[in-house]
């Protein structure tokens, strides 16, 4: 949690100063004493005294920081929480799979298990299945590793409002009944799964939309880590979405639906979308079949498939790649005019087509949004891939724990 630094902070009781410094290290990772001074607003003498006390207790350790060395040739000294045993769990639910991961506080993914699921099946038990998978993943490390969880992050494939749950549940229910012959919604869509997971595991649980969690991951540990404003586009499981980082923070919007680019209209009177409108980006990408066959691939492929298959780097298939990229580029160009982001990160690209897609998007943004806006916006392929959602979950849990510690 950020504090504005006062001109004369005055004395702060040692227990409170200790909580503030530990919260800052938990939320933001290793910091120098100078960074803690600026971030916490505590007096220099207080930071020095508390830091030394935490070092003496073994709670904090000094490490060499990255970056340029000082004028004396020594690397900067950072303070880091000595929390090698502390872990964070992460559950990522997509439209096809459920992933359970165990992560160290430094971002190392220590264990991960995956399972194919149908999240719209009325019998699908996200809480029960997720708990079992978390325990399975943690058991690969140590039988007691699950007891070292500080918190859990859950990513869900839909607009989510903290403390409320999925947005537009009634509309979703109508869509599911229409598409699946009267099937009812599964429990995770009608009840906030975070509450029951927290009860079962005995740790705080943070729930977030999957694209938003991916955006936080890219902003904290990926291609957008140096940007104050960024758009992170996800193209996974045949679907497209986006998360927005504005002024260094996740932007959810009034209903938690900011970044739902899948339902921006790109073709007038186009194919019917599951949302009930026509010509949405998601519907166009998912229903437009490709006329050019690919050797060894399934017979029916759609525009959205071009991003995840290396075959589309071949010259004969470039028209399909260009067509799909133009549709996304049209939406991103409008976003660039409205938000003027520093960085756009694209997730889900096959390495063989990533450079070509990035170049096409840059060209599209320059043409539609103008040279000045296009020049100011970097388009990058994700370095983290699907791990971005796990690392975003880690960041959210750290922020939640830090806010709790600061409020105590």
What brief labels describe this structure?
single chain; 408 residues; alpha/beta; Arc Repressor Mutant, subunit A; Nucleotidyltransferase, domain 5; 5-stranded mixed beta sheet; 40% helix; 19% strand; disordered N terminus
Look at the helices and sheets and give the structural class. Answer: alpha/beta
CATH architectural label of the largest domain:
2-Layer Sandwich
Order of helices and strands: HHHEEEEEHEEEHHHEHEEEHHEHHEH
Rounded to the nearest angstrom, the radius of gyration is 23 Å
- Approximate helicity band: 25-40%
Q: How far do the termini sit from each other?
A: 13 Å
- Percentage of β-strand residues: 15-25%
CATH superfamily of the largest domain: ATPase, nucleotide binding domain
Summarize model confidence as the mean pLDDT: 85
Low-confidence stretches: 1-9, 67-71
CATH topology of the largest domain: Nucleotidyltransferase, domain 5
CATH class of the largest domain: Alpha Beta
Number of domains: 3
């Amino acid at each position: 949690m950020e504090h504005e630094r006062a001109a004369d902070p005055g004395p702060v009781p040692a227990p409170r100063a200790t909580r503030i410094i530990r919260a800052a290290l938990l939320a933001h990772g290793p910091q120098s004493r100078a960074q803690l001074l600026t971030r916490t607003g505590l007096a220099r003498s207080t930071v020095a005294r508390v830091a030394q006390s935490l070092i003496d207790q073994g709670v904090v350790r000094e490490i060499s920081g990255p970056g340029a060395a000082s004028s004396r040739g020594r690397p900067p000294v950072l303070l880091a929480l000595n929390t090698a045993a502390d872990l964070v769990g992460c559950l990522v639910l997509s439209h096809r799979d459920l992933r359970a991961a165990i992560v160290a506080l430094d971002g190392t993914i220590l264990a991960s298990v995956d399972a194919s699921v149908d999240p719209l099946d009325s019998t699908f038990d996200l809480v029960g299945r997720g708990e079992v998978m978390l325990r399975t993943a943690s058991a690969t490390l140590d039988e007691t590793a699950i007891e070292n969880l500080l918190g859990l992050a859950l990513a869900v494939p839909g607009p989510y409002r903290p403390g409320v749950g999925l947005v537009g549940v009634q509309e979703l229910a109508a869509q599911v009944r229409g598409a699946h012959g009267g099937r009812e919604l599964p429990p995770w869509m009608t009840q906030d799964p975070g509450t029951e997971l927290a009860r079962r595991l005995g740790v705080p649980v943070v729930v977030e939309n999957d694209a938003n969690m991916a955006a936080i991951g890219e902003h904290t540990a990926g291609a957008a880590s140096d940007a104050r404003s960024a758009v992170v586009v996800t193209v996974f499981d045949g679907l497209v979405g986006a998360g927005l980082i504005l002024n260094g923070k996740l932007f959810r919007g009034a209903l938690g639906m900011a970044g739902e680019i899948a339902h921006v209209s790109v073709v007038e009177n186009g194919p019917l979308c599951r949302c009930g409108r026509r010509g949405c980006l998601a519907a166009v990408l998912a229903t437009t079949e490709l006329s050019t066959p690919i050797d060894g691939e399934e017979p029916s492929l759609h525009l959205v498939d071009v991003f995840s298959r290396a075959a589309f780097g071949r010259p004969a298939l470039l028209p399909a790649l260009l067509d799909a990229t133009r549709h996304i580029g049209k939406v991103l160009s409008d976003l660039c005019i409205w938000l003027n982001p520093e960085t756009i990160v694209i997730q889900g690209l096959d390495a063989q087509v990533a450079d070509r897609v990035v170049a096409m998007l840059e060209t599209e943004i320059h043409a539609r949004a103008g040279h000045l806006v296009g020049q100011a916006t970097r388009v990058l392929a994700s370095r983290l891939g699907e791990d971005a959602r796990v690392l975003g979950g880690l960041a959210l849990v750290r922020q939640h724990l830090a806010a709790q510690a600061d409020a105590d």
